[in-house]
Amino acid sequence: MSESEDTISTFFMILSHPLRRLIIEALFEMKEVSFSELLRMFFIDNSTLNFHLKKLNGLIRQLPNKKYALTEMGQKAVEILQELKSVTLQSKVQSFQETVELLLAPTKKRILASLIDFLIGFGIFILLPLILAPLRWSPETLVSSPERNLLFLILFWFYLTLLEGFSGQSLGKVFMQIKVVRVDGKKLTYDRVAIRNFGKVFLLPVDLLLAHYFLREKVYLRYFDKFAGTTVIEAIQ
Questions:
Q1: Which of 136, 170, 173, 181 has the fewest CB atoms found within 10 Å of its own CB?
Q2: Containing domain of residue 178, as a range?
């Protein structure tokens, strides 16, 4: 093995332990860190920290004030680690996006799921006067016809957002075995679901037209899906 290969092997062996990687990343961020600060930072005992600091010889140095800092090689080591993390993350995101494209829910299923959800929402809204009759309250007694329509849309948006934010599936999507996901692979959140459903419930014609004329990515059927970073895929059982 050549000297350069030996140096590379030693470098990766030193950084094979997660605690040692955390130590040099902390030094990279904070510039100078004392022994006691490292102890408090990582909740470890003296002997453990001493052991790992010795292993990092060449990547860290002790300053006249007894604090630790990175050497030039240590700086390069952190930069390499950050680059590797970036490449790994991009690879994971790319892999997930490719998987999403393979599992994209057919448009027909999405339309049928939306129709089912609409009928469920409309049925519940129609039944509200009967449900709330003992309380002498109903949408009809409070609002005029245009306002009733708006009230229905708000309740329908809330219904979709509540269920999809919880599990990625409204009742219609459960029935059609499809679900909402984020295209970056991260956990779906209520704010993103609220955004995608705002376009669906209140601005559907505009939502579809914007997607038709301005979007080229096949993972997005509606513009508000692009805006929220979401799409709909087949639900894997």
A1: 136
A2: 104-234
Strand ranges inside the chain, DSSP E? 60-62, 68-70, 178-182, 230-234
Could you tell me the CA-to-CA distances from 91 to 62, 85, 94, 226 in Å, in that order? Answer: 37, 10, 5, 21
CATH label of the domain that carries residue 58: 1.10.10.10
pTM value > 0.70: no
Q: Which amino acid is at 232?
A: V
Instruction: Say how many domains are in the chain.
Output: 2
With residues binned 3-state (H G I as helix, E B as strand, rest as coil), the percentages for the chain, rounded to 5, are 70, 10, 20
pLDDT (tens, 9 = 90+) of the chain, 237 residues, equals: 444 444 555 566 777 788 888 888 888 888 898 998 888 888 788 888 899 888 888 888 999 998 999 988 888 888 877 777 765 555 555 555 666 666 888 999 999 999 999 999 988 888 776 666 555 555 555 555 677 788 889 999 999 999 999 999 999 999 999 999 988 778 899 999 999 999 999 999 999 999 988 888 888 899 999 999 999 988 865
Angle between helices 46-55 and 18-30 (to 10 degrees): 80
